[in-house]
Fold this sequence. Notes:
12-stranded antiparallel barrel, single chain, mainly beta, Immunoglobulin-like, 1 helix, 25 strands
Amino acid sequence: MLRFVLSERFVIGDFCITKNSSLKSNIMTRKIFTTLLLSLLGVAAAEAQPSIPGSAFPAAGATFQLTLADTMGVQAGSGGPATTWDFSTLTANGTYQNDTFFTPSATRYGALFPSADIALHEVNPGTNYYVYYQNDAANGLYKRIANVQPDTVIYSDPANEFPYPLAFNNNYNDTYYAHYHSGSGFSTMAGNVTGVVDGYGTLTTPVGTFYNVVRLHAHRVEHDTVTVSGNPFPVLADFEYYTWYQDSAYFPIMLIGTTNVTSSVINRHAKVVGYRAGYNIGPSGVNDVASTSSQFIIYPNPATQKANIIFDAGKGGSTDISVYDMTGRLVLQSPVNTDAGVQTISINISILPAGLYEVRVLNNAGVNSQKLEITR
């Protein structure tokens, strides 16, 4: 700490300049004083509080890769100002997480989410899904409005996921909700997320040392209900994440995440640790429409009067869309001829009573089926 006593002396550490000191001694001491002062200012600059703006959020074309590591004994450590986090001894486990950002219209599902500003395609050993975000610039955050994986989740109450700017002690609290088709039935997702930028400082990973880094600590708790064959099963899902960022890109340099899911039929714990192999790998230049599977989406679901079917028509030609009730009886059929690639067809379901149905799409790309709930 630097202290000035103007009337009699300057004091810095163990060095003192007094009125009675010799000229030569004063000159030498002042040089030491100047050196120490500059050193202190340098330390202060290195430990300056960083702030990451929303403009640093990845744009379409950005791709990143996280090297996944063994998780044994890895802890997030404490937060606070001017913290040093040392994860230099992490051991890569040979797997990776690849994240690519797209303009929503460049994805096969983009037409479903016209309010989305950016889409993320994430692939790792356990998942392969798309997340659609809306930039709520007025409130400084990116909202998760939908994700498409084996299940299509469209949030009636979006989840606030990426607040900005990321600056020390900035925090947020949000609730979110979705009702969606899952497996052979339907699920609800009712969650709360809290987050705080709980530290800043220096981070070391196996690829090097990063300065002026901020850490975001987020916690999500979901009280979900999965309905199978008319029977509801409550599920408690708890997610906790620590992610480190630098102002060059709003994408984690490193992450530590834990997941705990408990219900009457499942008790699952998972942990993931990953560090970025580098900065932006570079623009992908890829339109991912052709890279996805032949599964299809029904939207909205549940539906009341009309349902939109988005599907891969393969090389084009004849596609048969059929709707069956839960007894296996065909209740609606809509044969169409389409062009090649991803197509959207709307079907009128207003004549069908409320209930659960199966929709099948058959064409030269294959046959797929999903459940559709009709409500009134």
